[in-house]
Design brief:
Shape: globular
Amino acid sequence: MSAVTPQVRLITYTPDPENTIAMAARICYAREDLASLQHRVSTRDQAAFLQRLVDEGHLSTIEHVTFTFGVEGVSRSLLAQLTRHRLASFSVQSQRYVRTGADGQFDYIIPPAIQSLGPEAVARFDEQMRTMQGWYDEWNQALGARGESSNEDARFVLPKAASTRLMMTMNARELMHFFRLRCCNRAQWEIRAMAWEMLRQVRQVAPTLFALAGPGCIAGACPEKKRSCGKADEVRARHAAWMQEKSPS
């Protein structure tokens, strides 16, 4: 067992996502047949048109494109937050069928706040994880060590720090909503880091679509109102610098 860090990978996505959205939007008003419309869209720059769609809130057409991510090295605590986004599809590694880790022991995530307390605090946290592994092994043996039938009850002593891996698919509209909530300073640190990395990767393949994606304060007033972090200007400046740094080459 060991401490692990998050890994996010964009596995697959709708081919040519921005032109797909542009065609979906234009078909509502176009007279020409599909072949002609597709040729017109593919041979002209659609960036300004896409930006206008997003700015004016015509977002139903962006639901035609989806993005699938593989994620590992994240906690069960993060998973509980992630699955609140119901307009998404999830496939998650089972604690019933799989004893995670190369050695049959669970890996885990150490919160940065605990790491900041220093080596002694980290060592104490590590030891607590090993204690819980011992509890899990003890109950697994007591229940007959029968694989899934004993794992399913022994896992009740595993912590939320236990790591998991998953695949997740969202359409572009739900991704924008996800980024608005989870890139915010008020989001929990782990899911916030994952959201920013997801945003970085989708911008590589759909830069116009996600140009203003991010926390709610990027494109307007902070939606958190009285619960605002009070750092909207700082967030906007950091986002602008981040956008320049992460822009596709």
